[in-house]
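Give me structure tokens for this 436-residue protein.
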Amino acid sequence: MDLGKKNRTSHRKRKPVKKGIALAVLTLLFAWQMASTYAIQRFPKPEFESGYITPETLLPTPRAEILEVMDVAVLLMALSLVTWAVLKRRSRNLVFWISVFSLAYFGFYREGCVCSIGAIQNVTLALSSGSYIIPWTVLAFFMAPLVFTLAFGRTFCAGVCPFGAFQDLISWRPQKIGPQLNAVLGVIPYIYLALAVLYAATKTDFIICRYDPFVGIFRFDATFGMFLFAGVLLLSGIFIARPYCRFLCPYGVLLNWISRFSRHHMTITPSVCIQCRLCEDSCPYECIEKPVTVKNPDSRQTTLKKFILAILLMPFFMLLGGWTGSQLHESLALVNGKVWMANELLHPEKDASQPETIEMTAFKASGKPASELYAEAAEIIREFYIGGWIVGGFIGLTIGGLLAGRLMTRYRTDFEPNRGTCFSCVRCMDYCPIKS
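Here you go.
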């Protein structure tokens, strides 16, 4: 125990130095980005009052093919390097500096786009619509982390995802919140994923991109509301480690599922565990599972009966969730622009005091008959009705599965990382006194 305490104390002394250097680098990046934005805006305003001719609107040129290839190459290089740092070198320092690079490149240089998290919507739209062809770079950013996760665990989260790296750098005083609250908040990413897929499949919106709290910071162009949301999230991240990754990220749901079947996954100690519990104390994400031994056979039989009961109740959870989703389908469909305009035309008295929106003005000027808009809106609402059943059933299945998982205990003799929720951040390895 004395060795473990000495190890932990020495790491605590080094931690402020590393984070101080990283924050200095981030400060320079912020200053450079703001200076660039300010410089772009320093030009005379055009004269509109005397003979000014509005120039033809030009579309921005697409990103050069070689730069897109470079983005994918950097992604694969970062994934390979962080996987080597986790599984072979077992080095928290290496993982930390790779995450700083990822934040600088994928975050501030590439401005959070292409994004593996947002690519969920592109893949959904490509599968549900024959007219949309997904860019190969988007597909690569979606698939590469999943393939690495299936082979090596969630090393993408450890040091490649810029969103996770941003939160990791500000996690100065992380506190544990307990398994019960973790379980309740852990349902939110499943709901977010289901809604994102629903809105993308119905060609309504890309809600992951619209409500992304970090891209607006990377680009310095977020609305006040999104800046406020990001500020609250980052402020809470000082005390609750990676709140977005744990309680919001929809891509994390896919990584959680796949990581459970990973062929190679990080282990806390390379040899025999001495039960010092330093790994459990060091993990701010509460991903370390304690040893569980069989002492009372009756207790195990009772647990098994509860697990079987939870499995039998899953169809009930799915039906209840599906029915609830179907009842909410009209409210969910109002996010769609056509459904919203049709509702406004049917009930003009609701917002008579509000000025007419640009979309409504454009529709009236198009000369399109209202009956055609009503027919399109009705078809979209029908899609949301079917989608409501699917989304609700998925959420019901998720809740039933999580309950069954909590009742079923896997017996183990050592402290082990949870294969699904562990971010492979290597903190536990760093504190473990057993090095070989």
